[in-house]
Design goal:
The chain is an alpha/beta fold and 344 residues long. It has two domains: 59 residues, DNA polymerase, domain 1; 276 residues, Aldolase class I (TIM Barrel). Helix content is 34%, strand content 20%. Helix 11 packs parallel to helix 12. The longest helix has 13 residues. The protein starts with a strand and ends with a helix. The chain binds S-adenosyl-L-homocysteine and iron/sulfur cluster. Iron/sulfur cluster binds next to helix 4. Specifically methylates position 2 of adenine 2503 in 23S rRNA and position 2 of adenine 37 in tRNAs. GO terms for molecular function: 4 iron, 4 sulfur cluster binding; metal ion binding; rRNA (adenine(2503)-C2-)-methyltransferase activity; rRNA binding; tRNA (adenine(37)-C2)-methyltransferase activity; tRNA binding.
Length: 344
């Protein structure tokens, strides 16, 4: 009999599982706390669960775990973790310290199928989805070494192409009996899968980031194939309809690529496009990588774009590139995909 990995279960899933074993549902909360607040790796650590029931659990269930196979530290304090999964695939997570807070960027898939022209992860295609357990175990593993204040689903993969694992993972992260992250401290980023945006909003309460990256359908079609299915108008309508945690904004991510989407006309169009969406803009200067001909804009171009948005009262930050020296910056994560010879 294959054992149930209980790290794949949300609290309500665990309640159902436990009552299926003939035990009181409230035991689930105790076990959940052991897993995510006490980081238990073995049922025998769960001292407020009876010995008999622990024996039943040990026979039928397991507690999976990840430990980093490699950790690289950047000169700027960013740390990149490489996790080897049970089937030999690997993913990366990145811990980014900023003003005393640590943001952990986690992966939701091995590779990605979306084929954005500027993204290294995308060039390898999709190997497979991560399970809920593999997603939450990235957080467990990093938390063992460092405090984690924010979680962003901005590592490898398109989280909205793996909602059946991502929604439970968000619910475990934000559950008061689980990791206890405030819903304002967890952000899911998408390239713009419109129907799945609504589904995400129905399945959990979480911040949303949308990788806009262009201000015309013509340019967006060219760099993000997803735009051919869900063009700007539909994407922005879905942003407007998204049920955010209270007093939150959608994060509009905008990767600036030299001579492609970095003009003042782009800045003007961007202001217009997002004018009726409660939003803030993250400008991300393109991180260059081998195998992609795009270039990062000049500092002057970035400053001009940034200032235009500010002058129009748009909340904007330009993300300084972090972890570039260890290939941990946005769009540079690839795990060991290249060495696996992984293809779509
Ligand atoms: N798949 C999701 C989340 C992971 S990508 C998404 O696309 O939103 C996280 C962010 O990195 C996205 O905003 C994406 O546009 C950006 N990105 C990808 N490649 C990049 C690169 N080479 N330089 C800068 N940002 C990049
Ligand atoms: Fe996938 Fe996001 Fe990279 Fe596009 S930018 S290929 S959606 S990981």
């Amino acid at each position: 009999m294959e054992k149930t990995d209980i790290k794949n279960l949300t609290l309500s899933g665990l309640e159902a599982y436990i009552s299926g074993l003939g035990k009181e549902r409230f035991r689930a909360k105790q076990i959940f706390k052991w897993l995510y607040q006490m980081d238990a790796m073995d049922f025998d650590e769960m001292t407020n669960v009876s010995k008999e029931f622990r024996a039943v659990l040990k026979e039928r269930a397991e507690i999976s775990n990840l430990s980093p196979e490699a950790v690289e530290a950047s000169g700027d304090g960013t740390r990149k973790y490489l996790f080897r999964l049970a089937d030999g695939a690997s993913v990366e997570s990145v811990l980014i310290p900023d003003e005393g807070r640590n943001t952990l960027c986690i992966s939701s898939q091995v590779g990605c199928a979306m084929k954005c022209a500027f993204c290294l992860t995308g060039t390898f295609g999709l190997a497979r989805n991560l399970t809920t357990a593999e997603i939450v175990n990235q957080v467990c593993a990093v938390k063992r070494e460092h405090p984690v204040n924010n979680i962003v689903f901005m590592g490898m993969g398109e989280p909205l192409a793996n909602l059946s694992a991502v929604i439970p993972a968000v619910n475990i992260l934000t559950d008061p009996d689980g990791f206890q992250f405030s819903t304002r401290k967890v952000t899911v980023s998408t390239s713009g899968l419109v129907p799945e945006m609504a589904e995400l909003g129905r399945g959990c309460t979480v911040n949303l980031a949308v990788s806009l990256n262009a201000t015309t359908d013509e340019v967006r079609d060219q760099i993000m194939p997803v735009n051919r299915a869900y063009p700007l108008k539909e994407l922005l309508a879905a942003c407007k309809a998204f049920p955010l945690p209270s007093r939150r904004w959608i994060t509009i991510e905008y990767v600036m690529i030299r001579d492609l989407n970095d003009t003042l006309d782009d800045a003007k169009r961007l202001v217009r496009l997002i004018s009726n969406i409660p939003s803030k803009v993250n400008l991300i200067p393109f991180n260059e990588h081998d195998g992609c001909g795009f270039k990062s804009p000049t500092q002057e171009t970035i400053d001009r774009f940034h200032k235009y948005l500010l002058d129009k009262h748009v909340t904007v930050i330009t993300r300084s590139s972090r972890g570039g020296d260890i290939s941990a910056a946005c769009g540079q994560l690839k795990g060991k995909l290249d060495q696996m010879g992984q293809q779509d």
